[in-house]
Design brief:
The protein is mainly alpha-helical. It has one domain. It contains five helices and three strands. It has a three-stranded mixed sheet, with helices on one face.
Length: 128
């Protein structure tokens, strides 16, 4: 059994998207285009992450239903990384599902995003 409840994070400051500190994320259009057409392997977030980082895509994953969340990001400094590297969105993946299969796939995508984002945080923080 899996939970469809999101991990809510209460921030005690205004993140970059509230006060306008969002930049261009230093991602080229060519990188965005290439990343868009790469497949997603829910069995291996690490392999996917390494492939995307290799082409220059260091964006985090957001899952979106009625709201939007960033699985695996919990601390204010984690959210600040969104402002620097950006994010890509898996739309319509976290709230209401039309079938048990869709709910199972939504849960898999959310777990994949959590693993991906957690690994990306480690990679970006140790890159220095």
């Amino acid at each position: 059994m899996f939970s469809l409840l999101s991990e809510a994070v209460e921030l005690d400051y205004d993140p970059c998207w509230v006060d306008g500190r969002i930049g261009n994320f230093n991602v080229s259009y060519w990188t965005l285009f290439r990343s868009l057409f790469m497949s997603i392997n829910t069995e291996s977030a690490e392999v996917d992450l390494n492939e995307r980082v290799t082409i220059g895509d260091k964006r985090f994953i957001a899952v979106q239903g009625y709201g939007i969340e960033y699985p695996g990001l919990k601390k204010p400094e984690d959210y600040e990384m969104l402002c620097k590297y950006g994010w890509r969105v898996f739309s319509k993946t976290s709230d209401a599902y039309e079938s048990k299969e869709a709910a199972k796939f939504g849960a898999e995508l959310k777990e994949y995003a959590k693993q991906y984002n957690s690994l990306l945080l480690i990679k970006l923080k140790t890159k220095k």
